[in-house]
Design a protein that fits this description.
The chain has one domain: Alpha-Beta Complex (Spore Coat Polysaccharide Biosynthesis Protein SpsA, Chain A). It contains nine helices and nine strands. The strands form two sheets. Strands 3-2-1-4-7-5-8 form a seven-stranded mixed sheet. The longest helix is centred in the middle third of the chain and has 18 residues. Bound molecules: guanosine-5'-diphosphate-alpha-D-mannose and manganese (II) ion.
């Protein structure tokens, strides 16, 4: 075991990648996303850890995560649960505190973000030395699959309005499949005020303001098969509020 790990490390790039996986009722999805993450990281030889931030999911996601920890090891799967559903933005903030990597991936746990893109994010980062590499559905081969018209309009609309108001210079502002230098993520998080879904958008807008460099990787976003989206009318209203706050204050 020790020698296998040793050789894996020597194939890596000297960096460690912490993956933050926020979960709320992802019992069906978690085993597959973790298996795919382990597969793509192991194949490419990069050093990594997966941090599961479960918010007291009533479906028993945490118990599933504990089993996965048994299978893959406590150094690879870290559990940092919270008692109740406190929102996506604060889940990341909580997760970062426990990350030991010098790079941090943020992605959804419902298989909408495929781990097969991870090596491309890492390549892109290395090529340009970027502070942030953002997955984009709105450039190159990127795209969205499985969303109904309503969801597509919301996403396009949110991107469009934000592009016009804030000119952030990135093509996908609400997407949440991203790679950050750890210290960059920490500094962005410390100046972000939003807590829910609007968090992603604020992060990229602030990144641009703080003159961080942003690279983009086209990704396909596939709607979840298991479980439900937590994005509801409330989230849309708070997104608009957050957007206006940013517009007024930046
Ligand atoms: N810990 C925790 N707490 N996790 C949460 C919470 C929460 O309050 N709410 C959602 N999650 C987790 C879900 O379990 C999933 O892994 C991920 O966060 C995304 O949640 P979904 O409910 O699947 O989001 P979505 O598919 O509607 O929205 C996606 O697309 C949006 C627009 O492109 C996400 O990627 C959003 O971040 C993105 O803005
Ligand atoms: Mn989803």
């Amino acid at each position: 075991m020790a020698s296998r790990r040793g050789s894996q490390k020597s194939r890596g790039d000297g960096n460690k990648y912490s993956v933050l996986l926020p979960t709320y009722n992802e019992r069906e999805n978690l085993p597959l996303i973790v298996w795919l993450l382990v597969k793509y990281f192991s194949e490419s030889g990069y050093d990594y850890e997966i941090i599961v931030i479960d918010d007291g999911s009533p479906d028993g996601t945490l118990e599933v995560a504990q089993q996965l920890q048994q299978i893959y090891g406590e150094d690879k799967i870290l559990l940092r649960p919270r008692k109740s559903k406190l929102g996506l933005g604060t889940a990341y903030i909580h997760g970062i505190k426990h990350a030991t990597g010098n790079f941090v991936f943020i992605m959804d746990a419902d298989l909408s973000h495929h781990p097969k893109f991870i090596p491309e994010f890492i390549e892109k980062q290395r090529q340009g030395g970027y502070d942030v590499v953002a997955g984009t559905r709105y450039r190159g081969d990127g795209g969205v699959y499985g969303w109904d018209l309503r969801r597509k309009l919301i996403s396009r609309g949110a991107n469009f309005v934000t592009q016009v108001l804030l000119r952030p210079g990135a093509s996908d502002l609400t997407g949440s499949f991203r790679l950050y230098k750890k210290e960059v993520l920490e500094s962005l998080v410390s100046c972000c005020v939003s807590k829910g879904y609007v968090f992603q958008m604020e992060m990229i807008v602030r990144a641009r303001q703080l003159k961080y460099t942003i690279g983009e990787v086209p990704i396909t976003f596939v709607d979840r098969v298991y479980g439900e989206s937590k994005l509801g009318g409330n989230e849309i209203v708070s997104f608009l509020k957050g957007l206006l706050t940013l517009f007024a204050t930046t």
